[in-house]
Amino acid sequence: MHSKRLAMLSDACYEEHLELKTFLSEHVYRHYKVLRMTSKARRVVQELFDAFSKDVSLMPTEHRDLALQAEPAHGAAGRARAVSDYIAGMTDRYAILEHRRLFEPGERT
Prior knowledge:
This protein has helices at 11-29, 32-54, 61-74, 76-88, 92-103. By secondary structure, the protein is an all-alpha fold. The chain is flat and about 60 Å long. The N and C termini lie far apart (59 Å). 10% of the residues are buried.
């Protein structure tokens, strides 16, 4: 094992790296539009999780069956894991569509 790093940034490059990180943090990651989108995404995921956890029959058959099988073996945590796995496999677009289908009047199922 080496006591020193084998590869690293030069001092000048490291300073530029820190400057870039600061800029991105202040002007991109914490921009109000990004924060709004993050808040909306968090709400969509939480509401999907709550709905599917309360009624697993709202999920496709394969995922419903996994949740129903996991619950006797692992309790509520098993159901929660199956619901979480289903949601984690969704694209952003699909999660938004599922949310609309469940919560917006007039949306097709």
